[in-house]
């Protein structure tokens, strides 16, 4: 979407929020208003109300909003002087707005009036409420939200709305939401028995079941197999470290309260690692390195820990223990280009396997040129690094779009954005140049002239956190994983008890795959249906005919068709799907 179109849509959405506030004030004249911004897919407005809202309130509020739209009311701007603004808000009892106005520059205070409704707001808005007549909008939910996002403040009631240019777009969005609910990884994770939570273990700490562990391990094997082809070696580091490690890396500052601190009675004090890079620098630092040794590439799939405040209950999207697939290359400046190109190839290989490559965008995240003080490192290093990433984008035809101010603290990066099956943007893989960390840890190598030089560190994430990635995959595939990722690849169903022995024989021949025999005393139809619900790629049914002919009857996921063939024929097909 173009920026201009985006801005127009945001204006429409935010204007709709004004009408929501106006409607609320009609219902509750004593309501105090918080903020009401445009957000993805719509808007919200926060209110301090005399009673708790119930879902039945939403249609009533919508009716009031519709009436305001019909009246074709203009949005009238009025610039107000600070003291006057305070006076107006005080008189109206709008304590929250009063708090906001105190933070505003005195010459930038504007009120917007729509009918009887007046709101402190900087705009912009649509010209008249009538512009919302053909738009598609709807109030969607009620939630709680702390004033200014701080737990120390009062909890307000937030009403969310969806808002689009047209009614058709709203309809599409609603259909997408229904689909998203069906695919919700929390729901499917339970149905497919992939992960669980325990009150005794604690919130935000998912436990992978045997089936979920298979998915995690298969992903890890896939990433590591690809990375090994590009010279990555696996390392393994402990979860703890002295805080000094993260003081040097800058992460102690960056994560502050989000660090978990661990101490023993014997006086040992550690923190749980919030990232993996600093540990890995110490493997590099353990030896003298020569220019001939570089590049040195390490990869690791391990847990890192962050005490994030907001926890999404029962889901994998926000957890305290995050399993991260992380990797770094320590290299010479003349090797950076090839290293980055290799990492892009790894990302391409991996996402091709998942079936997402091709439907992606790449962003070249560079400095905010007006504020060089926000970054670590010299101007020369930055110029060089940004130029290099641009060259790579051109040579590899990535079509990276430059985004100023999006670089990491220590260097520019290439970010990859994919679309999932529901059209949602997913930004995971990234390749980042880092000149600063090696200097902070005084990492060196000796060059041809025996001089001590700092290597460059290239960070890369392929799938990022396993938890987030598995949540994404569950929703992307709606639980119907590709064959190589499916926890159970084949379910064998003997028609009757007499076929159990033959079922075992077939399972043995298919031992290279993950096979389950369902010989429960349930009807054939029920067992087939359950295999379908579990989204097993192949279901094999074995009866008299199959046993006599030494064949198998196969049903492929998503089809009703049954095919009878020799076991060897199936193995041939499956071998191709696993490699
Ligand atoms: Zn406004
Ligand atoms: Zn890193």
UniProtKB/TrEMBL annotation:
Binds 1 zinc ion per subunit. GO terms for molecular function: ATP binding; metal ion binding; threonine-tRNA ligase activity; tRNA binding. It is found in: Cytoplasm. GO terms for cellular component: cytoplasm. It catalyses: tRNA(Thr) + L-threonine + ATP = L-threonyl-tRNA(Thr) + AMP + diphosphate + H(+). Its cofactor is Zn(2+). Keywords: Aminoacyl-tRNA synthetase, ATP-binding, Cytoplasm, Ligase, Metal-binding, Nucleotide-binding, Protein biosynthesis, RNA-binding, tRNA-binding, Zinc. GO terms for biological process: threonyl-tRNA aminoacylation. Transmembrane segments: none annotated. Residues 215-482 form the Aminoacyl-transfer RNA synthetases class-II family profile domain. Zn(2+) binds at residues 277, 328, 459. Pfam families: HGTP_anticodon, tRNA-synt_2b, tRNA_SAD. Its EC number is 6.1.1.3. It comes from the Bacteria. Belongs to the class-II aminoacyl-tRNA synthetase family. Homodimer. This is Threonine--tRNA ligase. It comes from Berkelbacteria bacterium GW2011_GWE1_39_12.
